[in-house]
Design a protein that fits this description.
Elements (H helix, E strand, L loop, with lengths): L9 H9 L3 E5 L11 E3 L2 E3 L2 E5 L7 H9 L1 E6 L2 E9 L4 H14 L6 H4 L2 H5 L1 E6 L1
Antiparallel strand pairs: 1-2, 1-5, 3-4, 4-7, 5-6, 6-7
């Protein structure tokens, strides 16, 4: 794991907090082209950005992000180089992320799916690179 990354700035976190979706662009194995570009929901918990794969760990962008650990993301017309890793699996963190999804996406038809077991098992920690 690359420990040289710096945390998101407060201004960047505001973009994530106020943006409805981010565009996830994990690299292919050539590390220059993208596996796919997917608009995904994201939340901020304790200064960290997280996103969940709709189809659990079989979500195509999630698999590419975990395999390559790098790519790019876009939010609110801002582009960032990103590093990805599966989120720590803990009941406390899962509960915080689920609460953040409920608060941010309250009333959205897809919310029950995104806080269910399969997407929760595919929670990705999104960090600046």
């Amino acid at each position: 794991m690359d420990t040289t990354t710096t945390p998101w700035t407060n201004e960047q976190l505001d973009l994530f907090l106020n943006g409805h979706t981010l565009t996830m662009k994990p690299y292919n194995s050539d590390m220059t082209t993208f596996e796919e570009e997917s608009s995904v929901w994201e939340v901020v918990v304790d200064g960290n950005v997280y996103s969940r794969g709709w189809n659990g760990q079989q979500t195509k962008w999630y698999m590419a992000a975990v395999a390559q650990s790098a790519g790019e993301i876009s939010v609110s017309d801002h582009n960032f180089a990103a590093r990805f890793e599966p989120a720590e699996q803990s009941a406390d963190l899962d509960a915080k992320i689920t609460a953040a999804y409920k608060a941010k996406y309250d009333g959205q038809r897809s919310l029950p799916r995104m806080i269910s077991e399969n997407p929760t098992a595919a929670t990705l920690h999104v960090m600046p690179r």
